[in-house]
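TL;DR need structure tokens for one chain.
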Amino acid sequence: MNIKSIKEAESLKGKRVMVRVDFNVPVQDGRIIDDLRIRVAMPTIEYLKNEGAKVILISHIESIPSLELVAEKMGVKFVKDFMNWDGKIEEGEVVLFENLRTNPGEKANDPQFAKVLASYADIYVNDAFPVCHREHASVVGVPKLLPHYAGFQLMKEIENLSAFFNPAHPFIFILGGAKFETKLPLIEKFSNTADYIFVGGALMNDVFKMKGYEVGKSLVSNLEDNQVSMKNIVADQRIILPTDVVVNSGRVSSVKEVQKDEIIMDVGPASIDAFADKIKTAKFILWNGPLGLYEKGFKDQTLKLAKLIMESGAKCAVGGGDTVAAIESLKVENPNVFISSGGGAMLEFLEEETLVGIKVLE
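>> reply
TL;DR here they are.
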């Protein structure tokens, strides 16, 4: 990919630099409960400040209507009415615009809205990997109107995830969470390169059902249009499924002994124990999605897997909100483990090997 990092830009002193960040952070009771997306943007922001640029941050947020709380946490000036901003900003200063999605032009990729945003800046920087798969004005419209660069986090995402297109072996792909129909293309793609694909989360329920196992009242996808692909997955010897599961009563059950009134909530402990040896010998590990219903407290096996991965010597990339939360909760540093800030964007990048927000920077 022929993309320039912001470090390649000539003198930034006095330049107005608009940075598309992703500050779509979870907020609960007026408090930011996970600031990962703010933290990963800081190297780019600090670099621009130190270079004497006038930094304009743009983002969206879904958990609350306004980004004012984020501006307060960062200690930066907040611009509420960015459509009528006076443009006053000093060298080394940082301002944050209000939630872009308060304007319908953002999601509609309205050229006029993109023009207004671009009018405030001399340079555009994209450091928002999690929205690079969105054809929105701030992602694909503005960079067409300004000299454009990638921020440090976006460059790290591209570099670390691209490594999995030609991985060292043994290579393990671990896929959890739900929405099998969106993750099916990835299983099909990596079945050609992965030595093992471990399927957990609600995804495993779909495979169990296809194999004729009882899944009770567990969450399953509508896979009527993907019957052929599912049959191929069931037959693939590289696909590893749990042999035991935890059901809603807390009972650990063999996958063949789930009752009709039960709900599968997590992978069972024996399944992770059996998989541990493969993780220890792996050279590349790619993981997206928790193994159980993490948000309902069924975290044990996801945390157990996270610990195994952090202790392994493998190069690893991890993405998806609950998956990242599990890794970060261990408070262990491992330079071989890359934590992606994107969930859906990570999956789409791995499938397509690029994204619309990256293409426009080339």
